[in-house]
Amino acid sequence: MDNETLEDCRAVYLTAEDLRIAASILYNAYHDDPFFVDSLFTSDKAAYEQKLRAAIREELNTLWQQKQALIGLFDHERLVGLACVVTQEVPLGEGRYWHWRLKMLLGTGWQSTQALMKKESSIVELLPSKHCGILQFIALAPNEQHKGLGHKLVQAVVSWCDEQPDLDGIGVFVAQESHLQLFTQHDFVSLGDLTIGSVHGQLLFYSVQQDDSLL
Fold first, then answer.
1. Where is the N-acetyltransferase domain (predicted)?
2. Record: fold of 9-207
3. Which of 104, 106, 145, 151 is deepest in the core (most CB within 10 A)?
């Protein structure tokens, strides 16, 4: 993708009308994600894919209802990527609301729901304060990858983070080397190794940049 096309992309909040396409992008991006494979897959590929769709759909709808940051990257009017940040202003991990647990239980099963909550609890425990967020999802449409848009999307996330007065930073669990390289290029640093289920990775953290002119 050339520089002119990159400049045409804009990052804005998703609307309710964008959620269906957003869920499709996330499904394709996370289909082979080590954590979801470990948490949702048994021996039936069709059942795994059904669980993954249900988990993504429920989580995306929940983040929308809880007014969390759903940042879309658009090429003109076309959604090409998105990032979803959840803050500790809403209950996470073992503190998840009962109606979220029930819907996730119906869609993915008991063990998968427990694994999803365990992941969040493991991340929250390592975050430096209670005023931090988690980058829950970040994805590009399949035909938009390897064009430089990943950097554009991560930059939109950190720019959003810097504008939040009550946020100290955001954490993200990374289990793939290519993702590690992407985030570290945007000032994410490792808080240490983290194993969730049978998946080994690192918890990366972006600390909000203080505006010296306001100090």
1. 67-170
2. Aminopeptidase (3.40.630)
3. 104
